[in-house]
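Researcher: I'm preparing a figure for a lab meeting and need a structural model of a single chain. I don't have an experimental structure, so a prediction will have to do for now. The sequence is pasted below. Please return the structure as tokens so I can convert it later.
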Amino acid sequence: MKKCLLHILLLFYIPNCLAQKDTSAIDIAGISIENPSGIGGYFGTIGVGIAGQHKTRSGGRPDANAGVYAGLGDPIRYIGIGASVSIMGVSNRYGSKGNFGEGSFNIDISKLLFRAIYLKVGVQNLTFWGLPENAVAAQRSYFGSGTILLVSKKRKIGTAFSYIALTVGAGNGLFRKEKNFTVDGSGNLNPFYSIAVPVFRQTNAVVEWSGYDISTGLLSYVKLSKKQALGIGFEITDYLLKRPRYALTFSYSLNLLKNYYHDYKR
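Model: Understood. Here is the structure written out token by token.
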């Protein structure tokens, strides 16, 4: 059975990432839970997060994951680059036995097209440490995804029901169905989908197919300043296993630049 690797490192807050025709920019809550959305890769963006779950997918013990994310590019003018480190073992006492410090390195590139569509390709578990090569959590997973926001003209964006965020993609490795999963190779691509709608200000409800199961959740954030935010997310998954698994995620995001590209007048 697969071990869940929560995608906490696009964070549950997307700061000033959606370019507009004027000089303004938009803050929205996270738009996917386990699936990689098309958004990311902004230079100067740093994020840290931790996700705890009441049990693993295949076991009955609580477990947690942590990670660090850095944006290294510019998806609006050039190419966005996102790099992250995922720590799969934060304790030897809880969760999987003896896995403290196990982790992996992930990378992706992204691009905004027509001021409306974000595209991304990447690799999860490009390299890893502390894990045997045939471990489930060490699956090298290639993916591609695209995200589009359908914005209401009658509501201020970010308020309740002001947009629908659609993400569609495909990946292998950890994105495969249980019946197609093997430990000796990444296998063929499998589709995944996410849909997010704001139900309160700064809070999105998300429903998604992760490639192997259904996930639902609420993602929200508290803006500390123009450049900083705290995120929180709650997820329910493993519906198809009929043994629901609950997860709670906290994150902190920061932009190190004095100005975003979108803040400058054209």
